[in-house]
Amino acid sequence: MLVTAFSQFNSYSVTVRTELVEVCRSCFDKLSTNGGCNCPKLKTL
């Protein structure tokens, strides 16, 4: 039971991290083009 819960939590963490990386990537694209964006969430990964 505990192992199943852990694996579900682990996959959830990976999903959230992937979404954050996508957001930060688009953020860095804006930063390289107009310098108008930073991504503080990247520090929490």
Task: Write a compact overview of the structure shown.
By secondary structure, this protein is mainly α.
Indicate the low-confidence ranges by residue numbers.
Answer: none
Number of helices: 1
Rg estimate, integer Å? 15 Å
Mean pLDDT: 67
Fraction in beta strands: under 5%
E-strand count: 0
Helix content: over 70%
Instruction: Tell me the series of helices and strands, N- to C-terminal.
Output: H
What does the main sheet amount to? none
Give the class from helix and strand content and strand pairing.
Answer: mainly alpha
How many domains make up the coordinates? Answer: 1
Shape: rod-shaped
How far do the termini sit from each other?
A: 27 Å
Offer a few descriptive terms.
0% strand, rod-shaped, 45 residues, mainly alpha
Structure description:
It is a single chain. The protein is mostly helical. It has one domain (2-44). It is 73% helix and 0% strand. The protein has 1 helix and no strands.
